[in-house]
């Protein structure tokens, strides 16, 4: 049993993660429209945020999408960093459902 766990720990960091619709908190199809309307200006169409220069880089900074849905939804809700130069809060812009939808789009599009 211990040997099996040790083997899994060696393999898991290199495993490709596929996000299935059942694993997503919202609707990624709806989330795409929201992303393009609200998030794309800073995070860019390709999700890199100009390599982190304008916003979080979902593609190359793996620690961002390694956070739980709850942590990411809290960031979307509250914003992050300086209110002017950081990510603004979306609590007055997006409904709870819309926040879950955009998170699902981000996870599905940039998460694997």
Structure at a glance:
This protein is mainly alpha-helical and 112 residues long.
Tell me about this structure.
The protein has 112 residues and is mainly alpha-helical. It has six helices and no strands.
Distance between the termini: 29 Å
Q: What's the total helix number?
A: 6
Integer tally of domains: 1
Query: Which class best fits the helix and strand makeup?
Result: mainly alpha
> What does the main sheet amount to?
none
- Please give the number of β-strands: 0
Q: What top-tier CATH class fits best?
A: Mainly Alpha
Contiguous runs where pLDDT drops below 50 for at least 5 residues: 4-18
| Approximate helicity band | 40-55%
Predict the CATH topology: Cytochrome Bc1 Complex, Chain D, domain 2
**Overall pLDDT, averaged?**
86
Task: Supply the CATH superfamily name.
Answer: Cytochrome c-like domain
């Amino acid at each position: 049993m211990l040997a099996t766990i040790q083997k899994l720990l060696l393999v898991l960091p290199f495993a490709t993660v596929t996000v299935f619709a059942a694993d997503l908190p919202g609707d990624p199809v709806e989330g795409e429209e929201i992303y393009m309307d609200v998030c794309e200006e800073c995070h860019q169409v390709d999700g890199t945020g100009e390599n982190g220069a304008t916003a979080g880089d979902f593609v190359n900074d793996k620690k961002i999408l390694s956070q739980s849905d709850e942590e990411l939804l809290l960031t979307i809700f509250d914003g992050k960093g300086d209110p002017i130069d950081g990510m603004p809060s979306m609590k007055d812009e997006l409904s709870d459902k819309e926040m879950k939808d955009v998170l699902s789009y981000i996870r599905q599009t940039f998460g694997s």
